[in-house]
Design a protein that fits this description.
It is built from twelve helices and five strands. The protein is an alpha+beta fold. The chain is rod-shaped, with a radius of gyration of 43 Å.
Length: 413
């Protein structure tokens, strides 16, 4: 067991430092945590490397007290290299050029300059990097010309290291920008998914609110009418009580309650924790229109239906069902006793035309407006259709809707 797990453990141990190095490369140097402490450590390490090179490399005079002072002080500005990269570079150059001018070990003083150049490139725009690089090379060659032309030529040949440090900084900067853009796109996509989820929740709540309004308004209105019929029979002539009529009215109330309870259970199924938004049962459709007409007839309305269409998309069928349900409810409630209601559905040029008209008196002007007409218009708009409702010229009230039979991106609401 142990020999099998050993390679995995070793790989994991090697992956941790690699992950930390990649995290340091990807991180923005201007917003990295503990930047001052980390830069102090970098300055200390570079100073140690420079001191070792000054002792081991022989390409100039061994530094004396002044040389050691200039060499070590040139690394101090690196502690603030991320905050003020250009000023740090100027401070390093201010110490390094006298060091080179006094012909101390030249290789030892280049490390701090390379770190400062890299910082300028990684934190600034490419134009600034190019200008700084040209200025540093020109200034270094000018200083070396005061010593000897041979030293200036050698420095010009070695200027490739300056270009390499600048190019490395620019490359890391572009890479960080690329990583930042990927992270931003991922965050934007996550926000978009969250907004879409919130929109779907709001849309589902609106659908449930419309369904509950249509269902409860329809059922309560029918129950109210049927209860009034039973109460009228009981109080009209107690000595000649029509038990059969009372029993029929009570049976109609019970049937309406059972139907409402079943449809309410289907509507609220989406709110159960174990159910998904799509597992909410079949939608009501055109096949449920006869039951609506029969329920309205039980409430006293004389309903006639003319249906010249057999099939419709589920969303359109559900919208037709709810619009007819609300229109019949309004007719029973506001059209007066025994209204004649005509429901007509027809398909013309790929569009479903719906009409529900009655010959009643219509709603009173002083009544409180409800949400029925608003809900019907929302039903029609949800499938890309339109709906109009208002008094008829010859009396009564009419609801007309035009609904498309071929819709893209249907909603089952």
């Amino acid at each position: 067991m142990t020999p099998v797990q050993a390679p995995t453990t070793t790989a994991a141990a090697w992956s941790r430092p690699a992950e930390r190095i990649m995290a340091a490369i990807n991180r923005d140097p201007l917003t990295a945590p503990n930047a001052l402490r980390n830069d102090a450590v970098v300055a200390l390490l570079v100073a140690g490397l420079s001191a070792a090179l000054a002792l081991m490399v022989d390409d100039g005079r061994r530094p004396d007290a002044l040389g050691w002072a200039l060499l070590l002080v040139s690394h101090v500005p690196l502690v603030w290299r991320r905050r003020r990269p250009v000023l740090v570079l100027v401070g390093v150059i201010a110490c390094v050029f006298p060091y080179h001018f006094l012909d101390y070990t030249h290789t030892a003083a280049t490390q701090a300059a390379y770190v400062a150049l890299y910082t300028v490139a990684v934190t600034g725009r490419p134009l600034r990097t190019v200008l700084v690089g040209i200025g540093v090379i020109a200034l270094a060659v000018s200083v070396m010309l005061t010593i000897s032309a041979h030293e200036a030529l050698g420095l010009l040949k070695a200027s490739g290291w300056v270009v390499a440090a600048l190019f490395c900084g620019v490359d890391v900067r572009f890479y960080r920008q690329y990583v930042a853009s990927i992270v931003e796109r991922a965050e934007r996509a996550e926000r978009t998914r969250e907004e879409e989820a919130r929109w779907r929740v709001a849309e589902e709540r609106l659908r449930i609110a419309r369904d509950l309004h249509d269902l409860l308004a329809h059922s309560i209105t029918l129950i109210g009418v049927q209860t009034s019929v039973a109460a009228h029979v009981l109080s009209a002539d107690p000595e000649r009580l029509d038990r059969e009529t009372v029993a029929k009215a009570l049976d109609d109330i019970a049937e309406t309650c059972r139907s409402a309870r079943g449809e309410l259970r289907t509507t609220l199924e989406v709110l159960r924790e174990h159910g998904s938004p799509d597992a909410r049962g079949p939608l009501p459709g055109l096949d449920g229109l006869p039951d609506l007409a029969e329920a309205a007839r039980l409430a006293g309305a004389r309903v006639e239906q003319t249906v010249r269409i057999r099939r419709a998309p589920p969303a359109v069928g559900a919208a037709v069902y709810r619009i007819v349900q609300e229109a019949l409810t309004n007719a029973v409630r506001h059209a007066g006793p025994g209204p004649a209601v005509h429901v007509e559905l027809a398909e013309r040029q790929g569009v479903l035309h719906l009409s529900v008209r009655d010959d009643g008196t219509g709603p009173g002007r002083g009544g409180t407006p409800g949400f029925g007409l608003v809900g019907m218009r929302e039903r029609a708009r949800s499938v890309g259709g339109t709906l109009d409702a208002g008094p008829r010229t010859g009396g009564g009230f009419e609801v007309t809707a035009v609904l498309p039979l071929t819709t893209t991106g249907e909603r089952d609401g």
